[in-house]
Amino acid sequence: MVKINRRQFLNLSAAGAGIALFNNQLWQKTIASQPLPESSVNLAPSYQSSDGLLELDLKAKEHLINLGGQQAYLLTYNGQIPAPRLEAKPGDKVRLHFTNNLSQPTNLHYHGLHIPPTGNADNVFLHLNPGEKFTYEFEISQNQAAGTCWYHPHLHGLVAEQLFGGLAGLFIVRGELDKIPEIKAAKEEFLVLQDFALDEGGRRFSSMHMSLMMGREGDLIAVNGKINLSFYVPAQGLLRLRILNASPSRFYRLMLEHHSFYQIATDGNMLSEPIEIKELLLTPGQRADVLVKGDQEPGQYRLLNLPYDRGSMGMMGGRGMMGRRGMMGRNYRNEPVVLATLNYESTVESLTLPTKITSISALPEPQTVRRFELNHGMSPTVGMAFLINGQPYSGERLDTKVQLNTIEDWEIVNTGVMDHPFHIHVNPFQVMSRNGTPEPLLAWRDTVLVPRGETVRIRIRFRDFPGKTVYHCHILDHEDLGMMGNLMIDT
Ligand code: C2O
Ligand code: CU
Ligand code: CU
Prior knowledge:
Helix content is about 5%, strand content about 40%. The chain is mainly beta.
């Protein structure tokens, strides 16, 4: 094989040839400054339901955290980055005694949970003032898939800022997926990806307007609150990684040196069988469960975040399409970043992968087809804004009215210059086609990337729960700047 230097490697990977390099041992040492791995994969304490009840106190507050040896004043739940992991099963009751000790109003959203969008369940219209307490209470539906969900604040206008402060935690639904023998035998690790921007005193930067338009990103990337986290291949060789992108705007394009990912779940939903991938792209809000076989030479392998260009406001105006994917945005760093290090000491014979996970049936034909156009522009009311069908979000307006227990196709058209991950609350959906090409993979998701200039068609069933909720871009600055709509599910 040909030797390549660092510059050549970067050029190649920028051209999207990262995969070709996958088996090349020679670029092992090409990545510059790399902090020493931090030991311990351990997360904050987790809370499991018992006797059908998950009950806990959750306090949002600013807290001084040690983030990779640096002090950081972050926004936390219970003083922890990431927030405590919650675990429950279908049929369980959840009672969460929430206190807002932030200096701003906030609330909670349960991303991926199929629960009512009303009352004291997944109600993103609640406005909890500083000092206020509120008890969230709901039941995990029997129609809830087992999988990786999460919780985070959702008060329109403050969502990006509060997530960027650190407010996010996993909400794991246990069930069918965990009982599959091969998956059960694997060692489970949770990876929560977050980025932060701090000054020398560990204070959070307030973003400039331009980076808000882009979607704010921080240079400090933490996995489970650690910089270059260490994790280990277990004796039996099979690892199950459950990965969450909890960043407000940053996309992660993950690659583990010399290892494939075998994806078993998209967002909080099982796939029908494992899919081998070399790279895993996670937009904000998305999750993936993957298996990793520890079948390589013993050693250390880096989990890398490869560059991804999600478009830029710099392309606005008269210059036209300068190669749709060619131009670098402000936040586009043409350089892989080490997120974590996988270690193993001896050769192991890896356990086998499951061949079958579940069966997924395609949703029947829709009763209604709608179109949503994503773009940005000037709005007379709020100035520069992100728009859906030409309008920025308004709390007063009902944008979309659907009928409970019906099926709809939503055609989401991105006519702008930046990528937008589109997310719908309460019900998962299936991707039907991208730019008119039928989607080969049948899967349930709750967030789908709609790249700039492209069209994605999804199919959704509004099941079980009536009420008002939202859909939005999960680049949370875009959402805060208007790219959200109110959805009424009518009985
Ligand atoms: Cu995780 Cu409305 O979002
Ligand atoms: Cu959500
Ligand atoms: Cu967006």
